[in-house]
Every structure is written in structure tokens, then in C-alpha cells.
Write a structure and sequence with these properties.
rod-shaped, mainly alpha
């Protein structure tokens, strides 16, 4: 009986941590997309300079 309770507690903790990570990812997604666009623009501009 005690192992079943411990297993339920661990499952609940895993669900809480997983949902917190997923929520943080969804919350930060617009900023991450913006950062990726900035990195791409910075990478392409430095690439143009190298070819000159």
C-alpha cells in the first residue's frame, strides 16, 4: 500500500514539473522566436561581410 502511495506522489510530482516546464516554454516562445530571428539576421549580415 505504501509503495502505491509513493508511486502516486512521484507521478504527481512529475506531472507538476512537466506542466511547469511546458508552461514556461509556452510563455517564453515569442521571445525565443524573436531571438532566433535576431541570430539569423546577425549571421547573414556577418556572412555578407565575409564574402566581400
Amino acid at each position: 500500500m505504501a509503495t502505491m502511495t509513493a508511486k502516486r506522489v512521484l507521478t504527481a510530482q512529475a506531472v507538476l514539473v512537466g506542466s511547469a516546464v511546458l508552461g514556461l516554454l509556452v510563455w517564453e516562445l515569442p521571445g525565443l522566436v524573436r531571438e532566433i530571428k535576431i541570430w539569423r539576421m546577425a549571421g547573414s549580415s556577418s556572412g555578407v561581410r565575409r564574402h566581400r
